[in-house]
Amino acid sequence: MKVGKLDWYRNDELSHDEGYTTHLIAEEASTIIEDQATEKPLFLYVPFNAVHAPYGVPDSYTEPYANLSKTRQKMAGLIATVDEAVGQVIGALEKKGVLDNTLILFCSDNGGVSPGRYADNLPLRAGKGTIYEGGVRVCSFATWPGVIPEGIHVSEPIHIVDLYPTLVTLAGGTSNQKLPLDGMDVWPVLTKGAKSPHDAILLAGNSTDELAVRMGDWKLLVNPSDKDAEEGGDENSSGEKVELYNLADDVSEQHDLSSQFPERVQQMQARLEEFTKDAVTGEKLHSKRRPKRKAAYEKKAK
Questions:
Q1: What is this structure's pTM?
Q2: Max Cα separation, the chain?
Q3: Chain centre distance of CA 156
Q4: What angle, rounded to 10 degrees, do the helices at 21-35 and 70-96 form?
Q5: CB atoms within 10 A of CB 243
Q6: Phi and psi angles of residue 95, each rounded to the nearest 5 degrees, phi first
Q7: Residues 47-66: tens digit of each pLDDT
Q8: CA 125 to CA 232: how far, in whole Å?
Q9: Residue 150 and residue 28: Cα distance in Å, rounded?
């Protein structure tokens, strides 16, 4: 979104709805719930603009946090708008009489931005855009009365890509398709305390060469970027910077163990290569799109 430019659509058509985006999205979601036939299944994806740049929020939401810095006031106010909006959607489900028959999943998309200024990710290291835990480990919850046990804490590593095959399986479908999926069905993890089905999880940063792989409690980072961190890490034979951490003992990722466990580094690098060998890199992706874009521009020019 570019500040000052209309970037609001309904059914792919520009819309001139007036109001604060978080409020508008909550109202739209609530209306969809109200209009839905109770006997008909509903999948509703509700991504709020908050909490995100340009960090615009009505003054009434920042006033309760006058004791914080200006940037932290905005962040707290934005979170308050999301809390209110989620409550509105829950209220719509309750009013419709379907709350007890609804699976609700809530998840952030990345760690807090600019730690120390806007966010506080401690004890996790760094923040949004990095492959350190402060950038990739986020809060999430799932609730479904009578189906998911109350008050349990899931410490097994799962990934956002797991939601698709999990939901498809729950809906009675199959996740078998032509191309393999990155995600896996994690319903037993959420409901029965099962172990994560992943033997490894791939994590990616802002650049194509900034990658990490987690295997159990171990995490290998390749070319990590953290401008606030002290220079460190060993280089492998390819000249890449690598760091190795045991998250069970060092969730803050302060003690690089790559020089102490070279065999583990090699093992995890091999697993990382398996993940990336079939990946579409940014350049390949752009090259595939470029002819279509060029044709579109030429057509527009005519």
A1: 0.82
A2: 63
A3: 16
A4: 10
A5: 24
A6: -60, -35
A7: 998 988 888 899 999 999 99
A8: 14
A9: 29
